[in-house]
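Why do we care about 3D structure at all? Because function follows from shape, and shape follows, mostly, from sequence. That is the central idea of this module. The next example makes it concrete: a single protein chain, its amino acid sequence, and then its structure expressed as tokens.
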Amino acid sequence: MMKKMSIPTSKTSLVLFLCQIISALEVPLDLSQPPTITQQSPKDYIVDPRENIVIQCEAKGKPPPSFSWTRNGTHFDIDKDAQVTMKPNSGTLVINIMNGGKAEAYEGVYQCTARNERGAAISNNIVIRPSRSPLWTKEKLEPNHVREGDSLVLHCRPPVGLPPPIIFWMDNAFQRLPQSERVSQGLNGDLYFSNVQPEDTREDYICYARFNHTQTIQQKQPISVKVFSTKPVTERQPVLLTPTGSTSTKVELRGNVLLLECIAAGLPTPVIRWIKEGGELPANRTFFENFKKTLKIIDVSEADSGNYKCTARNTLGSVHHVISVTVKAAPYWITAPRNLVLSPGEDGTLICRANGNPKPSISWLANGVPIAIAPEDPSRKVDGDTIIFSHVQERSSAVYQCNASNEYGYLLANAFVNVLAEPPRILTPANKLYQVIADSPALLDCAYFGSPKPEIEWFKGVKGSILRGNEYVFHDNGTLEIPVAQKNSAGTYTCVARNELGKIQNEVHLEIKDPTMIIKQPEYKVIQRYGQASFECIIKHDSTLLPTVTWLKDNDELPDDERFLVGKDNLTIMNVTDKDDGTYTCIVNTTLDSVSASAVLTVVARPNPPFDLELTGQLERSVELSWIPGDENNSPITNFVIEYEDALHEPGVWHYQTEVPGTQTTVQLKLSPYVNYSFRVIAVNKIGRSQPSEPSEQYLTKSASPDENPANVQGIGSEPDNLVITWEPLKGFQSNGPGLQYKVSWRQKDVDDEWTSVIVANVSKYIVSGTPTFVPYEVKVQALNDLGYAPEPSEVIGHSGEDLPMVAPGNVQVHVINSTLAKVHWDPVPLKTVRGHLQGYKVYYWKVQSLSRRSRRHVEKKILTFRGNKTFGMLPGLEPYSSYKLNVRVVNGKGEGPASPDKVFKTPEGVPSSPSFLKITNPTLDSLTLEWGSPTHPNGVLTSYTLKFQPINNTHELGPLVEIRIPANESSLILKNLNYSTRYKFYFNAQTSVGSGSQITEEAVTIMDEAGILHPAVGAGKVQPLYPRIRNVTTAAAETYANISWEYEGPDHANFYVEYGVAGSKEDWKKEIVNGSRSFFVLKGLTPGTAYKVRVGAEGLSGFRSAEDVFETGPAMASRQVDIATQGWFIGLMCAVALLILILLIVCFIRRNKGGKYPVKEKEDAHADPEIQPMKEDDGTFGEYSDAEDHKPLKKGSRTPSDRTVKKEDSDDSLVDYGEGVNDWAGGQLFCIEDCRRAMDSKRCRCFRRCIQKLMCGMMHERGILSLNQKPIFQPFHM
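And the structure:
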């Protein structure tokens, strides 16, 4: 069975995977091997004195190793100490402290040894020390009396603990003391004040020491600080509180954190700045803490050695300190020794290389004993940091220790030499299945062991050749790497391991999967507060992999909030708030790969209102307003709007003052006198306006005389003898003071008069009476208050009141341009007679009569106004061949003046309108009768009519056009010599001497044969009435429907409708629209056995309907879906028909055999009709009868069809064609048979045949088998 393994795709995961494979290349535990230490306690092991001490030492080997310990360099006999036990199958010691033991008694240096027959491995020296948290020594603390501005250091001096405690300062309420650039804690735990302030006075400065190992906190006695003030406070230049002097040194070990500190005193508080002399501070590893007083560099190396300079600066000067940093290094590995497996006779080396500052010394041990005094082995040779092995034998197996040490520490590593002779083994399970993503590396494991070291070869497929080439990477641990696995890389791979002792192989399987992709990633969103945000994450993945989608916010789990809705491929956030701002990441994980995509959500909203409004620099006419902006809510503030309220004149009403850019938070505002101002500010961004800020304090400006005068001053008379002076009054804040009034002044223009003035208040209008009519005046209005007058106002020209014009325009002339357009001229009136502002002239004109009809009608006057001093105008839209009158009047602001004398003019003839109607009646075989009405608007004297017509064939193609000129006094015309059964299109128009008018068109069809011509008694030759009518409404009813037909007389193109309802019911009539101009309609959905009323009307003709008709539907039948051939009535009918045919045949036969001749018979004898065939003797049937009417002689003007096809009227009979109605089909057919008896012999048989067919169809229709318009379902039978 395959074991499944997924290979990760990321580079980091790939490195870890390779490391796991490399570390897995170990000697199998079923083979002999020296001990290997697998777990041990740290070198410096601080223990909790209240708990048992556990010193770890675990090892493996074959045979399993035994363990022993040394303490402080001598053997530690655990059997003699009842408090010490060793765990079974382990070297781990447990020292029982909780049952009476003391941790201090077991302080020391411990070392573990694991030993078997192949060698001994040793642990590091493990230093055991119990943690300590001593109490503070009691001391008497004097209060600190400090002058304001001086520096101060409060010493903590915590007790020495193991490990050192964490220091922090709090007050009696266990609240941390606030720290700042001025007050901060040093690395030694002291509290430094760069300068003290009165608020630093307090009696509870308490230093706390927290010992983490014992989870205890020790408290120092409270320290009292009293600050006394002196005026003025003396400023001081910086002085360093720590470190002291100008230089100092610092030694730090490689890999540790370097902390450098500078704290300075001074007033103002100094600012600290750090530099490295001769170099740059290391990027990405440098941090500033404690308000930049501490420089922190992590993971220091020898390159970080150098001089670091801190500078403290304020406005009075600066001071600096240089710290010389030296980075030393405890030993660290360059090449650590690794286990060596050799076969007898092989060579090998152990290498131990380390570095440090100072450079460490290297020493070797064999099985825990210095190699110099260890048993000799001729196969080994020590060469400094290398041991060389030659031609090893099984006795050469041992554990070697390499020790690298200097003054700052040591390194100890165990590495065994194991001499074995073993055939190859493959440690990777057989048939292991690997799954990887396409285009990513594939690593196929072939962990092996053997001594000598086997050679590894890889094959693909059952009979594949050995794998070679650049597309593969072969690792020393046996792993086959395919750097870029493709779909064709899938398959079975075979790993073969061989050495001189044997050969073995193993198969593994590789599957290639499609990569997981996010085909639609979440997109950046900007959403207004309380809106809805939705992120999509649509994925595509291999069908055999099961993806899981996880959403993160700011690389953390989504908030536990019901507003977050996670769908199959989206994330929706309802009612977004400001806290929903952030980066949202969609992570898709499968067992093989992981992909992610992120998008930022920005929640925007209207800005918060500004606050802290402040008025400064108050002057009589200006003030400075400043404010602090509110939160812009992720949408930058574009501008601020400043509004003001005048509490003196309009309390509660806010007015726009000004606006400033969004980067500005102060503005100089111009003010008006005598206004009690308060201001508010509104912030604006793209989302909208904020709420207004709280109002500022009020500011009342001093009174002054007005700065401005009223606007919009006008002088317009309302009567012929007055002058009305109006103005726009000043607003309250424009008055500039109490007692606002207006000085109104006027005088007649161009007359040497003095100004007349009057002072008014609380008004905006003054009327001057007794003025001449419409003369110009100079007008001005000046504002004043209790403190004085406004500046001199400007003068405005006005006029006294207007009166109606005195005279009419003269010399009115009319020039007729064409039949619908004329131009009128007049002389202007003198301006003095206008007595007002000339607005223009009005032309009144009206039609007197039409010259063609000589009939008067209601006079409708039309008016055209021509603005300004215009003296001519055009009169459009006139009617041709008509008589008109007009007059002209002058217009001013008061009204119209007198009219000029009426001027008469006439329009010439024009082309007429189309004839009022065109009807085509009395169709015959070769003629049509046309009737028409004269044009509604003849527009002149009609000279003639023109008729054009042309035939239309079955494909709607037009034939040759024929034109006829008709005298104007005619109203009808009979067109003769037309083709029978032919459709014609007619074009008809009227003419005057000017030309032809628009035409009217109509279509009509000549009839097919004489059967279609109405007998004179029926109404042939009648002219259709001028007014339409509908008559002869007939109905043919069945079970659920009825056929309604009617006759119509009137204009063509009428749109009909049928109204019906239940007879005797008071319900409203139901209405059905008839499509087109048909004269029949089928009412459907009727109730069987019900009496209905019906009538027919025409759309658009009010009250135009036929008389009512009543009919009754047939009774309901159980079912009509039956086979008529099995019905008894049908069988009986067929028998009756057969009998009737037999009788008719006998009668015909007897008449023929009598020998009597009649005219038709003589003709038949003389002209043997080939269509009449004798009876066939072979089958006893009659020859086919051909309808003689299909070949009758042509009438005058008719033609026989060349293809001799049967006309529709002869063969395609519908039920409607067979009788006047379905209800009287039986009686009708009796009359039909009687008529056939009297018919000519040559037509009698055909007549009988038609009667019988009508009889059968009528019966079938009554039974509901045939519809009204359905053709009979019979094959022709022969007589």
